[in-house]
Write a structure and sequence with these properties.
The chain is an alpha/beta fold. It is 33% helix and 22% strand.
Amino acid sequence: MDWMAQERERGITIVAAATSASWNDYQINIIDTPGHVDFTAEVERSLRVLDGGVVVFDAVNGVEPQSETVWRQADRYSVPRVAFINKMDRRGADFSMSVESVRERLGANPVPIQIPIGAEDEFRGVVDLVEMQAVTWSDKELSTPERGEVPDDMLALAIEARENMVESLAEIDDDIAVKYLEGEELSVDELKAAIRKLTVSVQGVPVLAGTALRNKGIEPLLDAITDFLPSPLDMPPIEGVNPSTGEEEKRHPAEEDPFSAIG
């Protein structure tokens, strides 16, 4: 989406660009914003129209200074977020460190819903803590994910991580709390509904992992976008002033409503 010559030469995004993609019968409208601090105004104006966001963190560096700036901007506009720990294939990648940096430096409530299988050269997939399945990718380009049993050597770690996830959900969802305290098994649908509630209410941030360059972790991220981030129909109408009449009006997320924009 970096279409300007300067962007391609420097390898960074300078201006926000919009596109759309289809995933499992959903249309996802995407605004790709700059990551460099010099172009933060592009991020600010994009956040005003977003229903939700994916914040990408570096698995080696964790939260970086520009990430803090963007996060505070998203807090200001109460934008629900999903976090993606990217570059898990890089030397020095550390998922736990990255999650803790989100907690400590941003004062956020990160809730991992995945844990990585391997890291650096040995990164090959994730454990889906909601469905308790391993999701792996081969090293072939554009390989499709395969679901299977959690590796034996990761089972204890996955069970502990799932317990931590459920405890975080129980803090904001009474139904989950009651079932958890009574030792009842929670269904996948119940957990997904609780994660969505956590996300949309901006009380927590689901955390996923992968490496975009190798196309590992992208399909679960798209699932998380459609499962947990709000659709336009979940959002309240936008209030503004009609420049022609000077009167306050509301615009609902409906095709029959007149076009509106932010000046």
